[in-house]
Amino acid sequence: MSVMLVYEMFIPFVIFITICFYFLERRWKTSKHWQYIKNLPCPKAYPIIGTARLEDSVGLFKRDRIRAKEFYPIYKLWSFHVYFVCLVSPEDIELVLNNVQHNTKSDIYNFLHGWLGTGLLTSSGSKWHKRRKILTPAFHFSILQQFIDIFNQETENLVRVFEDNCHESYIDVVKPITDFTLYSIGETSLGVKLNEYPSSDTYKKAVYEYGHNLTYRIVRPWFYTDFVYSFTTKSKSDRAAIKVLHEFSTKVIKERKKVGVASEHISSISYSGKKRLAMLDLMLTAKNEGADIDDEGIREEVDTFMFEGHDTTSMAICYTLMALANEPEIQDEIRREIHEIIGDSSKKPTFSNLGELKFTERCIKECLRLYPSVPFISRLSGEEIQTHSGYTIPKGANINIYIFDLHRSTHIWENPEKFDPDRFLPENVSKRHPFAYLPFSAGPRNCIGQRFAILEIKAALCGILRKFKLEAVDAPEDMVFKSDLVLRPAGEIRVKFVPRK
């Protein structure tokens, strides 16, 4: 065993036991803040280390699901000096997401600052408001309409990949779909063709590596301090990944600057006499016009949108294909709707066509219920919260919101494991709590790109289902997930593609 490994495993642990033993005991006994936390239900805990377990990412994901069921609607997790209030019920979740006092992301998001800085995902306060104001016009419907041609072209490229490999007994859809979403976000929001970048695969690997390291760090509170974590091999791995990620996004920005803001790119259009720009062009123009954003700020947002714009949508499409492969009748109904609205396979869908695919959209929503791309989010309480379950969450508490468990809760959904797109008929939606379904979060900090994502998923399904019948290889009950930045599978997502005659 190396000296470095001994340091990582034992020395930080001993230091924290020594320091925390004294201070935790005092705080739990005397602090009103900690009395509120102490009153919350809690899984089995041990002195000092609390509920922490040294598990791999698969074990952590499984344990979180068990805890959410056992302690619904609220419980706490804690270890050493760190604790999290965990919410699963829509009533309590609404108190957090629908109140601007709780807009600040929790301490967990600090681990992303090395990569994403304080962009739209991780910033708070006035900086978040300014960035949101700058970026919101980039997702106006007039901009989204211009993206359809790109979605259609990238879908054609994706279909060719499946055609080249459909003779195989199955295709692991993760890589081709991730390529599709990465190239789509590159050409639409960034104005560059990422499929011409030889480093695209290296970028994706760096994203996976960073997410893996983040999960490792989360379950080891003695690494929450940057100084202690900086001596670990995982920190070294993070620095290498960040170097790759930042070099990639910096190259994207430089390439776009060479072309010139809104020159020949489809992102520059006129709407009601006002020029509208896609995301990167919008920021470059805003900087030139004196807005409160500099080159570092632009890179923060490019990093954020490249990650969120490709990885989350990629997982959504992958799970959708797997789910539809297991639902042949629903798959056929989607194909019939596509044919009725768009016509034969030689016709490409328009923006209007995609908006008319109501049954398809209900199926996408049901897939996002079962497989939310972001399985949990976390906030910092900006003021004291009196929950519907009768507990008090003190100001300054880290609050975890478990979207995966919310979407599969038997307290909300009848037969929650069943794939049923009728859950999203208007009459059924109106009967549910408005915060029972949160694939794109909710409230002031909801996902700015949700309409973009739905359009992209629809376009992909149109191209794929017109060319192929999907047959099941992996069943939903066989899927194994692991804790990560997104809902990532522990293995492959396998689907059989049968060409339609």
Automatic annotation (TrEMBL):
Gene3D superfamilies named among the record's database cross-references: Cytochrome P450
Membrane topology, from the record: Peripheral membrane protein
Organism annotation: Phaedon cochleariae
Role played: May be involved in the metabolism of insect hormones and in the breakdown of synthetic insecticides.
Keywords: Endoplasmic reticulum, Heme, Iron, Membrane, Metal-binding, Microsome, Monooxygenase, Oxidoreductase, Transmembrane, Transmembrane helix
Iron keyword on record: yes
Needed cofactors: heme
One family name in Pfam for this protein: p450
Lineage: Eukaryota, Metazoa, Ecdysozoa, Arthropoda, Hexapoda
Subcellular location: Endoplasmic reticulum membrane; Microsome membrane
Any one Gene Ontology cellular component term annotated for this protein: endoplasmic reticulum membrane
Name under which the protein is recorded: Cytochrome P450
GO molecular function, one term: monooxygenase activity
PROSITE patterns referenced in this protein's UniProt entry, alphabetically: CYTOCHROME_P450
UniProt keyword annotation of Transmembrane present: yes
Residues holding heme: C447
Bilayer-crossing regions: 6-24
Family, similarity comment: Belongs to the cytochrome P450 family.
